[in-house]
């Protein structure tokens, strides 16, 4: 079993590899990775998950990025898992018997991939990544992604459609629709108790934001 100093080295080496390898957008940058790592560490402690799997999986979950509007977007997590596994094998010091668990946790983190997590470590990494799509940072990331895709902020005639919309939602064209298409549904997908509790807290903040947005836009 590696000692704590080895875990610290793994953190540092993973971050260095991510800095060299990733080319994510504003919503999937190094700051996002660091937040996911921090959240995953807290969830891992609460759930009794293996940090030697959670740490590299959280650091490397977006080491290969594919644009949100790319046709092969659903393959992004598999590509990242393959790149992470190869890097860990080449690193030498990392325990080879944990590499499949790291790869699975990376593959299963993605919403679009639709892969069911089979381990507590995969559940932790998936929850940590989804939590970063909620709350204040989730709002910021939502609109940053919309800007990158050329989406409008709101529908001109129905800015804040609410949970029972009177029109078809289109989150590719209108960023605020994405709250109702996906984001506010994330807490119910959380796999860990701590993740669900934090997800509900962050979703409540987003609902408050949407209420204010509705007031300001006359919705």
The mean pLDDT is 93
The total count of helices amounts to: 9
The count of strands amounts to: 0
CA(first)-CA(last) distance = 58 Å
User: From the helix content, strand content and strand pairing, which structural class follows?
Assistant: mainly alpha
Largest sheet: none
What's the CATH topology label of the largest domain? Cyclin A, domain 1
Low-confidence stretches: none
User: Which descriptor suits the 3D outline?
Assistant: elongated
CATH class of the largest domain: Mainly Alpha
In terms of quaternary structure, what is this?
Answer: single chain
Helix content: 55-70%
Q: Report the C-alpha radius of gyration, rounded.
A: 18 Å
By CATH, the architecture of the largest domain is named Orthogonal Bundle
Overall tally of structural domains = 2
Taken as a percent bin, the fraction of beta residues is: under 5%
Instruction: Write the H/E string, N to C.
Output: HHHHHHHHH
Give a short summary of the structure.
This protein has 219 residues and is mainly α.
Report on the structure:
By secondary structure, the protein is mainly alpha-helical. The protein has two domains: 4-116, Cyclin A, domain 1 (Orthogonal Bundle), CATH 1.10.472; 135-217, Hypothetical protein af1432 (Orthogonal Bundle), CATH 1.10.3210.50. The chain is built from nine helices and no strands. It has helices at residues 4-21, 30-47, 51-60, 76-91, 99-109, 120-131, 135-149, 177-181, 193-217. Helix 2 (30-47) runs antiparallel to helix 3 (51-60), helix 3 packs across helix 5 (99-109) and helix 3 (51-60) packs parallel to helix 6. The longest helix is centred in the last third of the chain and has 25 residues, at 193-217.
């Amino acid at each position: 079993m590696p000692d704590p100093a080895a875990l610290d080295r793994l953190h540092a080496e993973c971050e260095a590899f991510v800095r060299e390898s990733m080319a994510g957008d504003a919503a999937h940058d190094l700051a996002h990775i660091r937040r996911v790592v921090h959240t995953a560490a807290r969830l891992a402690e609460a759930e009794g998950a293996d940090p030697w799997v959670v740490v590299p999986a959280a650091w490397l979950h977006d080491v290969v990025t594919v644009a949100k509007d790319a046709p092969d977007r659903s393959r992004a997590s598999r590509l990242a898992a393959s790149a992470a596994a190869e890097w860990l094998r080449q690193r030498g010091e990392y325990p080879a018997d944990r590499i499949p668990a790291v790869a699975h946790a990376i593959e299963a983190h993605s919403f679009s991939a639709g892969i069911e997590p089979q381990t507590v470590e995969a559940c932790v990494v998936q929850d940590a990544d989804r939590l970063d799509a909620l709350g204040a940072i989730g709002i910021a990331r939502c609109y940053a992604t919309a800007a990158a895709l050329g989406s409008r902020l709101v529908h001109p005639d129905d800015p804040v459609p609410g949970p029972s919309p009177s029109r078809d939602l289109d989150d590719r064209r209108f960023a605020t629709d994405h709250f109702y298409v996906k984001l506010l549904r994330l807490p119910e997908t959380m796999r860990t108790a701590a993740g669900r509790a934090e997800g509900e807290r962050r979703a409540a903040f987003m609902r408050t934001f949407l209420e204010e947005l509705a007031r300001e836009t006359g919705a």
